[in-house]
Write a structure and sequence with these properties.
The protein is of the alpha/beta class. It has helices at 6-12, 15-28, 101-120, 136-147, 166-170, 181-187, 228-233, 250-257, 269-273, 295-311; strands at residues 2-4, 32-33, 36-41, 47-57, 61-69, 81-89, 95-100, 127-131, 152-156, 175-177, 190-193, 212-215, 237-239, 267-268, 287-290.
């Protein structure tokens, strides 16, 4: 059986192709998706999580991602996110490939944000701010730059000394370290957050007209990256999937619980890609997007990577 390791996945992962694969999946839909989260209290604080994310497109492909999130691992020089993806052929049920789960998660999550940006951010968006110093941040920078004419990249982290822009600059990406978060948000056409924040780091009053807000990091109810003011400033609110955001992610469930919107008001990426609900209406509108992930996205990306590998061999 084929195995795609991390190096092969990163070699195959072109962001324009991945964005198109995700758009196609959202237009076609999947027949079954589910989500299971198992957790263990960590020894110091917080918790270790194990996510099981299956999805099935009948007669095409089905698969499952098993991914662990151990936040204390970087202190042991280990990645916080690790896992495995198993891909099956949909016509006969045969197991055809495994993929490195951490690498798949990185490129899928970045491509998902780029897809939402391609549909929602201003076409002339030139300044990107990425918040967070984890493994995902460089991939978000590369993915956003692949779909918009970004001429300036601001990169912020609570500990700026941990950021290394040199590899990104070597690829021609115009990255600079930002230390004043409020000023960086105010300058940005796209704000992309990939943190484990439990208190909002982005204030709505900082967002400039026309900005696209891409909330990626929080995947639990107690996690939140943007405040109520940011939610109120957007006329519509977009999520990639209801299964992984409503009642799951703090940036969605907290404003809903406060009565700032109703669940039916949310627009998911299935609806947006099919033209069933509206996108950005003008260049001054602030667009608000929450990425929760999901097995359907992993399946679309695993299928794309598998077929691209087969086609190249």
């Amino acid at each position: 059986m084929l195995h795609l390791d991390a190096n092969r996945i990163h070699g195959l992962a072109d962001y324009p192709g991945l964005v198109n694969a995700l758009k196609t999946m959202n237009r076609q839909g999947v027949d079954i998706i589910d989500r299971m989260l198992l957790s263990q209290p960590a020894k110091t604080q917080g918790q270790n999580d194990w996510l099981l994310l299956p999805a099935w497109s009948f007669d095409r492909y089905f698969g499952i991602k098993l991914v662990s999130v151990f936040p204390e691992n970087p202190r042991r020089d280990l990645p916080a996110v690790q896992g495995l993806y198993a891909l099956f052929e949909g016509r006969n049920g045969g197991a055809i490939a495994t993929l490195d789960g951490a690498a798949l998660t990185l490129v899928k999550t970045a491509a998902n944000s780029a897809m939402a940006s391609d549909l929602l951010s201003r076409r002339d968006a030139a300044v990107l701010l990425v918040c967070g110093g984890g493994a995902l941040a460089p991939h978000l920078i590369a993915a956003h730059c692949a779909v918009r004419p970004i001429s300036r990249v601001l990169w912020w982290n609570r500990r700026p000394e941990t950021l290394d822009p040199a590899p990104l600059r070597a690829r021609g990406l115009p990255v600079e370290i930002a230390t004043d978060l409020a000023a960086a948000v105010a300058a940005a056409d796209i704000v992309s957050t990939a943190t484990r924040a439990t208190m909002p780091i982005v204030e709505g009053g900082w967002l400039k007209p026309g900005c696209h807000l891409d909330l990626v990091g929080g995947y639990l109810p107690e996690m939140r990256e943007a405040d109520d003011a940011a939610f109120r400033r957007a006329p519509r609110h977009y999520v990639d999937a209801r299964l992984t955001t409503v009642g799951v992610a703090g940036d969605v469930c907290t404003p809903l619980a406060a009565g700032l919107a109703q669940e039916g008001d949310l627009i998911d990426m299935f609806q947006l890609n099919r033209g069933e609900r509206p996108g950005r209406q003008d260049n001054l509108e602030i667009t608000w997007f929450k990425s929760g992930g999901g097995g359907h996205e992993d399946l679309a990306v695993a299928q794309y990577l598998y077929e691209r590998h087969i086609g190249a061999n």
